[in-house]
Amino acid sequence: MRSGVRGGAPESGREGAAGAKTSGRPCVRSTGERKQPVPFAPATGVGSLPGGDAREAARTVTGSFETFPHLPELPARGPGADMIGRTTALLVELYARVEPSGWRIGDHPGRDTRRARSWLREDLDALEEFTQDYQGPLKVQAVGPWTLAAALELRNGESALSDPGACRDLAASLTEGLRLHLAEVRRRIPGARPVLQLDEPSLTAVLRGHVKTASGYRTHRAVDRQLVEATLRDVVDVHDGGPVVVHSCAPDVPFALLRRAGAAAVSFDLSLLTERDDEAIGEAVENGTRLFAGVVPGTDTALLDPAGSVMGVRTLWRRLGLRPGLLPEAVTITPACGLAGASPQYARTAYAHCVRAARSLADNPE
């Protein structure tokens, strides 16, 4: 990997997720083999939770989703625990630091990088403690290459999205970091079958040229769809033999592009769908793509009964003309987005509600 990103690190001192040394091997490329299916469970979380106690978060996740836990994210702890900072902790040969305007690529691993890696280790330690003897799917999350490029700044203060070379380097660094991260999860929790979730809330803005420049008065040029798809495919392929979910709680999720890029599942806010999405969703389901339907609000609110929460999923299925019995095989129920802005009590209630809503869908798919 070249260090062409402005502020990138030199070739020496290679470090990956949580400070692990890398082998110096090139990033994993696609083998062209079809990924082996993993039995997704009926319900799981998106990623973030309120508070800052890693053990309590791991207890909540593993207690709520006994057949599909995930690695919790706790952004309330501050910079480095947020989704961008956390993902910079995974990068190989690239580092980032906090500036008043956000995260900026830097020359060496400073205090912000060390803090982000420390929190990631703490979260992994807690999850490992609460998943002793666990066997089954386990989800870990990271920001995808295009949302990361839109959010990270170069030395000149502009988004990495403004520099095609920087985007390439960033995607390559992320890919290698994810390879190391997934290997560590397998080592810590041998019975787990990791599911990788790539968070891409800015993907539609990247495709449409809606990402603002540093001045705020202009926007960056739209990125070619074929390049977006190819880059995503390269990152997806790092999880060779394992499924990748792409999550976006923004409107107009590009279902067809994500399916072609190799995503085994797409995670989205069900309330943001329109009938314009029907054709792409139907084609995705018919081609084996699983839907992670976000039906439970991400902030404190009065919840419907479980059956009412999944009424929108049943309505979608009828519009698509799909067989009702396929629903439990094709849909996982989640919150609409992360729960970082919720109260701890609501977060626990929302997770339990996801499980009950998924059970309602399985018991009565009509």
Automatic annotation (TrEMBL):
InterPro entries: Met_Synth_C/arc (IPR002629), UROD/MetE-like_sf (IPR038071). Residues 42-359 form the Cobalamin-independent methionine synthase MetE C-terminal/archaeal domain. CDD domains: CIMS_like. Pfam families: Meth_synt_2 (PF01717). GO terms for biological process: methionine biosynthetic process. Residues 1-55 are annotated as: Disordered. Gene3D superfamilies: 3.20.20.210. It comes from the Bacteria. One of its GO terms (molecular function) is zinc ion binding. This is Methionine synthase. It comes from Streptomyces haneummycinicus.
